[in-house]
């Protein structure tokens, strides 16, 4: 049976199937995978931003149960469930605090609450770290000993791999979205200025787009949202606007690409990693052409211009975060429990 902190006690459950949940600012993606990491079932739910942490946990449970049904099992039969969530994570207690784009601030026990609901052990870690790990073990990062994962979505997150090991620092390593690229620049949602995310995060891009539209700039962004019956500028909305040749969308995406490239180049100059993997909702949706544009801007800005890092598109696509979360099941269960 799962313990209060979300870590499993001795249990007869030995199923090879495990669950993974990726919690984002727009959607919650769940998968059920087998021992080889092959997806056997998947489901997604919209992230409820007005119902507090309990509403988010309920949506996580619904998504995971949907993925389990698609895989032909009950959630309680899974060997465990991993969760990748933004914010400050206490993996032992299974709590998440200060998650950007989610409706709570203080530490909330996602692991214990979800474990109680699903009847399976639950393990929690940072969303970008688990997505980076998935690319290292199963995706575009398999051939590299060192890399930087950059996940471009509602915000901008990062993961660092050194000697094929995720580098945690003191708990906040990899926060490339909150590196400064312009002193005194645009206001970031964290309250500071000039961060990469203030220019490249999809939420910040939407705020700027709405402001420009309110001041008379013509754009198809709002009509596309209305056509789809949604109230946010999702990655799909931005991609569709770019396909329409929308000038405002092109301007803001170009601005985002420039910010990302500057932040990535600075990080690569410091770390001298072999590769950069671009993922996240917006990165995956815009795809290889935009990865190529980022690569073309990164190369000339790194210190060793004759030896720039390879810049690659995440191989696992939209499911990378959830697949990475599922890897927590074996990794965390193998660790000794603290006394």
Count up the helices.
12
Largest sheet: 5 strands, mixed
Q: Overall pLDDT, averaged?
A: 90
> How many domains comprise the coordinates?
2
Principal-axes shape call: globular
Task: Quickly list its features.
339 residues; alpha/beta; Nucleotidyltransferase, domain 5; 5-stranded mixed β-sheet; 12 strands; disordered N terminus; disordered C terminus
Q: What does this entry look like structurally?
A:
The chain is an alpha/beta fold and 339 residues long. It folds into 2 domains: 18-130 and 320-333, Nucleotidyltransferase, domain 5, CATH 3.30.420; 141-315, 2-Layer Sandwich (Nucleotidyltransferase, domain 5). 40% of the residues lie in helices and 18% in strands. The chain contains 12 helices and 12 strands. It has a 5-stranded mixed beta sheet. It has a 5-stranded mixed beta sheet with strand order 10-9-8-11-12, sandwiched between helices. Helix 3 crosses helix 11 and helix 7 runs parallel beside helix 9. It starts with 17 loop residues before the first strand and ends in a 6-residue tail after the last helix. Residues 1-14 and 333-339 have low confidence and may be disordered.
How is the secondary structure organized here?
Elements: E1 18-23, E2 27-33, E3 39-46, H1 52-71, E4 81-85, E5 88-90, E6 95-97, H2 110-118, E7 122-126, H3 127-138, E8 147-152, E9 156-162, E10 165-166, H4 197-200, H5 202-214, H6 221-228, H7 235-243, H8 247-271, E11 275-279, H9 280-286, H10 288-301, E12 310-313, H11 320-326, H12 328-333
Parallel strand pairs: 1-4, 4-7, 8-11, 11-12
Antiparallel strand pairs: 1-2, 2-3, 5-6, 8-9, 9-10
Helix pairs in contact: 1-2, 3-11, 5-8, 7-9, 8-10
């Amino acid at each position: 049976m799962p313990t209060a902190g979300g870590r499993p006690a001795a249990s007869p459950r030995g199923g090879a199937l495990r669950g993974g949940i990726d919690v984002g600012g727009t959607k919650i993606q769940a998968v059920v995978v087998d021992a080889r990491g092959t997806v056997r079932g998947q489901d997604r739910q919209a992230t409820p931003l007005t119902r507090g942490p309990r509403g988010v946990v309920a949506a996580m449970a619904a998504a995971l149960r949907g993925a389990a049904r698609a895989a032909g099992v009950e959630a309680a039969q899974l060997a465990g469930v991993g969760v990748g969530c933004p914010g400050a994570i206490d993996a032992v207690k299974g709590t998440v605090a200060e998650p950007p784009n989610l409706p709570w601030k203080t530490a909330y026990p996602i692991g214990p609450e979800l474990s109680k609901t699903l009847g399976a052990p639950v393990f929690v870690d940072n969303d970008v770290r688990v997505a980076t790990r998935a690319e290292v073990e199963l995706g575009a990062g398999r051939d590299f000993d060192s890399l930087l994962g950059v996940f471009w979505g509602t915000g901008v997150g990062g993961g660092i791999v050194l000697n094929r090991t995720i580098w945690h620092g003191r708990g906040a390593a990899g926060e490339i979205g909150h590196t400064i690229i312009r002193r005194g620049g645009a206001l970031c949602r964290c309250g500071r200025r000039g961060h990469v995310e203030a220019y490249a995060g999809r939420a910040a891009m939407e705020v700027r787009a709405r402001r420009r539209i309110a001041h008379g700039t013509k754009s198809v962004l709002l009509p596309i949202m209305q056509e789809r019956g949604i109230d946010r500028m999702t990655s799909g909305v931005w991609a569709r606007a770019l396909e329409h040749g929308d000038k405002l969308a092109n301007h803001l995406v170009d601005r985002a690409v420039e910010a990302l490239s500057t932040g990535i180049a600075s990080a690569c100059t410091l770390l001298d990693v072999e590769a950069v993997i671009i993922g996240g909702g917006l990165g995956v949706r815009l795809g290889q052409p935009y990865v190529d544009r980022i690569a073309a801007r990164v190369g000339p800005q790194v210190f060793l211009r004759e030896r720039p890092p390879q810049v690659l598109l995440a191989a696992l696509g939209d499911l990378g975060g959830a697949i990475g979360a599922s890897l927590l099941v074996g990794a965390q269960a193998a660790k000794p429990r603290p006394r």
